[in-house]
Amino acid sequence: MNALQRSAFDGAGLAGRPVYELRGVAKSYARRSIHALDRVDLTLTEGSFSSVIGPSGCGKSTLLKIMAGVLPPTEGSVYLEGTPVTGTRRDIGMMFQQATLFPWRTTLENIVLPIEIRDGKKAARAMHDEARALLDLVGLKGFDSVRPNELSGGMAQRAAICRMLITKPAVLLLDEPFSALDELSRDFMNMELQRICMERNATAFLVTHSIPEAVILSDTVYVMSPRPGNFVEAINIDLPRPRTLDMMTDPKFGEYVRRIRARLDKGAFL
Ligand SMILES: Nc1ncnc2c1ncn2[C@@H]1O[C@H](COP(=O)(O)OP(=O)(O)OP(=O)(O)O)[C@@H](O)[C@H]1O
Q: Which burial class, exposed, middle or buried, applies to 103 when counting CB atoms under 10 A from its CB (0-12, 13-18, 19+)?
């Protein structure tokens, strides 16, 4: 990729303050001699929602783990709010496919757990009002003393959103958070996620296998090549916000889906 093409992935032409920056991030897994990522450049601007989509095994989860600071890159650097990411940080929020709530804790106790781990029980108790406000934000008002086994899958993921937001992260890293839900719940939760991100001006980065999900949620969709993964196309999604599920029938939406599908069908090669 030449310098001009590379610059096209720098914030994908979106205006805004850079929050997250990856410069030449590469990853090889030495033990199996696997070259997973190849010098990825990425800038996420404040309040933007970006997605990455790519073939299985292309390095999406590896990229997310590096961004989260749980895996060191072999080459390159990662900056969040201008400081290097060299390990896990309190200003990075993460959400996975499974909500992984502790069954013996109430919803409220699960939500304040990151604070309890970080600052102790007293600090966690001081966050109960904040946790209740978050429950309100995600539509779970009054569910504070309920145990996880009384929550549906969608409700558990709402609680996981609260747990992610309680530390006031600068960026949200989302690894297919709703893929274990049925299609209707997933669509609904995606719209809820959009609402929450818009209300909090959150900067979000989503890994997904669903092209429609990437298009309906994102300002920019990054298409990744097969391993070693790198971005082969950054597509700005020019649909108004808030997005609605009706927009999925818009010809423009269909055009974005077709364009991404064609890129992936070609093997997303450079
Ligand atoms: N800890 C590890 N040790 C060795 N190889 C690994 C490790 N983790 C991932 N890999 C390899 O790195 C490559 C990228 O894996 P990764 O999980 O990042 O891909 P992915 O795009 O998220 O895949 P999928 O879409 O199937 O979830 C794969 O070939 C995988 O086998």
A: exposed
Q: Please tell me the pTM assigned to this model.
A: 0.90
Q: Has residue 270 been placed in a domain?
A: no
pLDDT of residue 220: 97
Which of the listed residues 60, 224, 230 should we mutate to test ligand 1's pocket, taking the one with most ligand atoms within 8 A of CB?
A: 60
Q: pLDDT at residue 168 above 90?
A: no
Residue 98 is predicted with a pLDDT of 85
Q: 256 near 235, Cβ under 8 Å?
A: yes
Residues 164 and 182 grouped into a single domain: no
> Does the beta carbon of 210 lie inside 6 Å of ligand 1?
no
CB 72 within 8 A of CB 111: no
Query: Within this chain, do residues 237 and 151 fall inside the same structural domain, yes or no?
Result: no
Give the residue numbers spanning the domain of 76.
Answer: 3-91+170-265
Question: pLDDT tens digits for 173-225?
Answer: 999 998 888 888 889 889 989 998 998 899 999 999 999 999 999 999 999 99
Interface predicted TM-score (ipTM): 0.97
Residues 63 and 138 in one domain: no
User: Does residue 145 lie within any of the structural domains?
Assistant: yes
Residue 199 buriedness (CB in 10 A; 0-12 / 13-18 / 19+): exposed
Note whether 133 and 260 are same-domain residues. no
